[in-house]
Design a protein that fits this description.
By secondary structure, this protein is mainly alpha-helical. The protein has seven helices and three strands; from the N terminus they run ααααβααββα. The protein has helices at about 5-15, 20-35, 40-45, 55-80, 90-95, 105-120, 140-165; strands at about 80-85, 130-135, 140. A three-stranded mixed sheet has the order 1-2-3. The longest helix is centred in the C-terminal third of the chain and has 26 residues, at about 140-165. The chain is globular, with a radius of gyration of 16 Å. The protein starts with a helix and ends with a helix.
Length: about 170
């Protein structure tokens, strides 16, 4: 079943609204490191089913999603009302061969970008004034973006932690 952009947003916001988005966003890097620390590469690179991402691929996806978050947030601040391009996550995963990229490097990229984004967010005086027009979902301001990324983190963290538990010997 394929979700529409609106269904996806509703599902992800339901996760992101379970707690304080900044708390979630601040804790994700360490949760990723804890979930992957000391795990054999074959466990982290094992796909749970055909067409499903491995833990390794999800971590690389999160690092790339943080690049997108960084860009969108900065564009929204610098040019309120900017058009925000959607991206095809499966296209990125396939064309950039996520399974072949370095897992430790992806974790480091994610952590560095996330800290930078959180610093920028902490200095925003009016998050509702920083907004963009997403190509598929419409108007999104910085406050909504935080909730979306918190939900996105929780969606993937829950999956990663379950997969590690299932796939570990």
């Amino acid at each position: 079943m394929t979700e529409t952009p609106q269904q996806y947003q509703t599902r992800i916001l339901a996760l992101g609204d379970r707690g304080d988005p900044l708390t979630v966003l601040s804790s994700t890097a360490e949760r990723l490191r804890a979930a992957t620390r000391g795990r054999p590469a074959d466990v982290l690179s094992r796909r749970p089913a055909p067409g499903r991402w491995s833990v390794h691929e999800i971590v690389v996806h999160l690092a790339d999603a943080e690049v997108v978050f960084a860009y969108r947030l900065r564009m929204m601040i610098a040019a309120p009302g900017v058009r925000l391009q959607a991206f095809d996550q499966d296209g990125w995963a396939n064309s950039m061969q996520y399974g072949r990229l370095d897992l430790a490097g992806a974790l480091d990229r994610f952590d560095t970008l996330r800290r930078s984004n959180l610093e920028l967010i902490a200095n925003l005086k009016a998050p509702e004034q920083a907004f963009g027009l997403h190509a598929e979902r419409g108007r999104e301001d910085a406050a909504l973006l935080l909730r979306l990324y918190a939900g996105h983190d929780l969606n993937h963290l829950t999956r990663i932690e379950a997969m590690v538990a299932e796939l570990s010997p």
